[in-house]
Specification:
- The complex is a heterodimer of chains A (368) and B (126).
- Chain A is built from eight helices and 19 strands.
- Chain A has 368 residues and is an alpha+beta fold.
- Chain A has a six-stranded mixed β-sheet. Chain A has a six-stranded antiparallel barrel with strand order 14-17-16-15-18-19. Chain A has a five-stranded antiparallel β-sheet with strand order 5-6-7-4-8, with helices on one face.
- In chain A, strand 15 and strand 16 form a beta hairpin.
- In chain A, helix 2 packs across helix 7.
- Chain A starts with 13 loop residues before the first helix and ends in an 8-residue tail after the last strand.
- With 126 residues, chain B is an alpha+beta fold.
- Chain B is 17% helix and 35% strand.
- Chain B has four helices and nine strands; from the N terminus they run E-E-E-H-E-E-E-E-E-H-H-E-H.
- In chain B, the strands form two sheets. In chain B, strands 1-2-3-9-8-5 form a six-stranded antiparallel β-sheet. In chain B, strands 4-6-7 form a three-stranded antiparallel β-sheet.
- The termini of chain B are close together.
- Classes of the chains: A alpha+beta (368), B alpha+beta (126).
């Protein structure tokens, strides 16, 4: 275990992870569980029953004040004006050239108050960028240190929450956030996730995290719930082709190239990066983020492996793994747009040898 | 607690060696497979490959990462476990048996003495 990395931060659940025998790795400046028993077992628990992940490393920022909605609309690509109180949306924070600083979910928690849930490794950068653009009348608070988060994901989520919160509990609809009380502790529960399964993300006070984590483990046990690490989180999201910041999303690429134009509102008025995205939408982009599946048996593709098309090296794998659901190597890569079409054949270079792969439609995993 | 059979020799890098005359059968230890978990692919060495002791010779891949396997001794690869091509999980389920990876014809069988015995390996993995 790499616990000697003293610069890394730990979440309020670190001791629970160690007690559960998790393998701990440094990730985005944090010491996080990569797995408890096995990535495949944890992956299947989420696909077939339910699993719980510690997402306390994610940043939680609160923007408030009378001008907060208008300001966020100038900073983010999606349209916060469309959010009712309790509503959430996936959105991007861009630089001036349309490159992606971060992808995040913004929730409207009150008329002029918003919660931004951002990537752990980008939290400081996001705060710096947002503060640099902060107008009078809007406050931005970084609550990450005093807050924790759990993702509870899988088809048995409703059953689990009824066991915890009562059988008559009215759960929030997809992308909605609502407050609940469990044994005197306040839980903000959002119907969101990063796995492709029904599920929730729970935001709570850091001091309450161990009690809630253990209650989830206990109540979930008869349902087959497992604690899950970052390993399963990565295989689950990649089967769904959900992008990972820092790998699939970087300042060198914009959301149109990433195939995520659905989360960009070009009609809402000006926002940072808008001109570049308008041009990308009108004229097309030179490259596209494509999903591929390896053909036949072979080693799994991994990040940074070279990608070849028609005898030329064109890029590298941005995300790759062995899909536990498909039992096949899968991945994503930015490709020249002509090669990014469904059915196109590419080659992945692995330890000096080229292995064939084919571009497929996203998501790569479809629930049967 | 990991299984460490008494009749085998071991390396720092968690390979085991079973001496069979002038040949050495090689795999990875129970401790190593438990650390890796979920072996999904094994890149076997080619028959006839000449390798130095501690030379990189095979690759074992879990869902999360690719790990190099090193030759415990100098020699020539004379067998590779083709069963791992269709069932790499044998490395997890039977690391000292069906999960063997390759067989070396040893150039210098006496070098086995430089490997760890079971007690020394057990001590090294705590």
């Amino acid at each position: 275990m790499l616990v000697s990395d003293s610069d890394s931060k730990i979440t309020p659940l670190y001791e629970e992870h160690r007690r559960a025998g998790a393998k701990i790795i440094p990730f985005g400046g944090w010491l996080m569980p990569v797995q408890y028993t096995s990535i495949s077992d944890e992956h299947q628990a989420v696909r077939q029953a339910v699993g719980v992940f510690d997402i306390s490393h994610m940043g939680q920022l609160v923007a408030s004040g009378s001008g907060s909605a208008e300001w966020l609309n100038r900073m983010l690509t999606n349209n916060v004006a469309r959010l009712e109180i309790g509503g959430g949306q996936y959105t991007f924070l861009l630089n001036e050239t349309g490159g992606i600083i971060d992808d995040l979910i913004v929730y409207r928690t009150a008329d002029t108050e918003f919660l931004l849930v951002v990537n752990a490794s980008r939290t400081d950068e996001d705060v710096a960028w947002l503060e640099q653009h902060l107008p009078a009348g809007v406050q931005l608070e970084n609550r990450s240190a005093e807050r924790a988060g759990l993702a509870i994901q899988g088809p048995k989520i409703v059953e689990l929450l009824k066991l915890m919160l009562g059988s008559d509990v009215a759960l929030p609809a997809r992308n909605q956030l609502r407050d609940f009380t469990f044994e005197g502790m306040l839980l903000s529960i959002a119907r969101t996730g990063y796995t492709g399964e029904d599920g929730v993300e729970v935001f709570l006070a850091a001091k309450d995290a161990p009690a809630i984590w253990n209650a989830v483990l206990e109540k979930g046990k008869p349902l087959g719930l497992k604690p899950c690490g970052l390993g399963a989180r990565d295989t689950l999201r990649l089967e769904m082709c959900y992008p990972l910041n820092g790998s699939d999303l970087t300042p060198e690429h914009n959301p149109i190239e990433a195939g995520l134009g659905f989360f960009v509102d070009l009609k809402k008025g000006d926002f940072i990066g808008r001109a570049v995205l308008q041009q990308a939408k009108d004229n097309g982009t030179a490259s596209k983020l494509a999903a591929f599946v390896m053909k036949g048996k072979g080693p799994p593709p991994r990040p940074h492996y070279p990608v070849w098309v028609g005898g030329a090296r064109v890029s590298e794998v941005s995300s790759g793994t062995l899909s536990p659901s498909l039992n096949q190597g899968i991945g994503m890569a930015y490709l020249p747009t002509a090669s990014a079409t469904i059915g196109s054949e590419i080659e992945i270079e692995i330890r000096g040898q080229k292995f064939p792969a084919v571009i497929e439609k996203k998501p790569l995993y479809k629930k049967s | 607690m990991s299984n460490v059979p008494d009749d085998l020799f071991y390396t720092e890098s968690h390979e085991w060696v079973r001496v069979e005359g002038d040949r050495a059968r090689v795999g990875i230890t129970d401790h190593a497979q438990a650390e890796l978990t979920d072996v999904v692919y094994v890149e076997l060495p080619k028959i006839g490959t000449q390798v130095e002791a501690r030379g990189q010779i095979a690759v074992v891949e879990s869902v999360k990462a690719a790990s190099d396997i090193y030759a415990p001794l100098k020699g020539e690869v004379v067998e590779a476990n083709e069963a791992l091509s269709s069932n790499p999980a044998l490395v997890n389920t039977d690391p000292f048996g069906e999960g063997w990876i390759f067989v070396l014809k040893m150039s210098a069988p006496d070098d086995v003495k430089q490997l760890k015995d079971a007690a020394a390996y057990r001590a090294s993995i705590g």
